[in-house]
Amino acid sequence: QVQLVESGGGLVQEGGSLRLSCAASGSIFRIDAMAWYRRAPGKQRDVVASITNGGTADYTDSVKGRFTISRDNAKNTVHLQMTSLKPEDTAVYYCNARVREYAWSSPGTYWGQGTPVTVSS
Question: Which of 13, 33, 43, 76 could anchor a disulfide with 24, C-beta 3.0 to 4.6 Å?
Fold first, then answer.
């Protein structure tokens, strides 16, 4: 089994910054893509940013230029540096990873428990 644990969420004023972190542990042969999702109040959970094993990143339009996703393959971690935060960024942020637990395994998708981010105006 694979566990993902997020940290770094909190309360910040509009225009401020936060850095979210996610550490993967457990049975890990190889982590393919990693991503950050968020669920805002009254909305579905949507992808915010993703990054491949090779470091290619993609972002949803609303965060481009403000958020940066990065990963450390040696540590099985992924981070989301958030700057110029807006009230509409308020959400619970979830770490996601596509993982092969063993060399013979098919990849599976795993989720963290979520870390809340609140941006006040």
Answer: 76
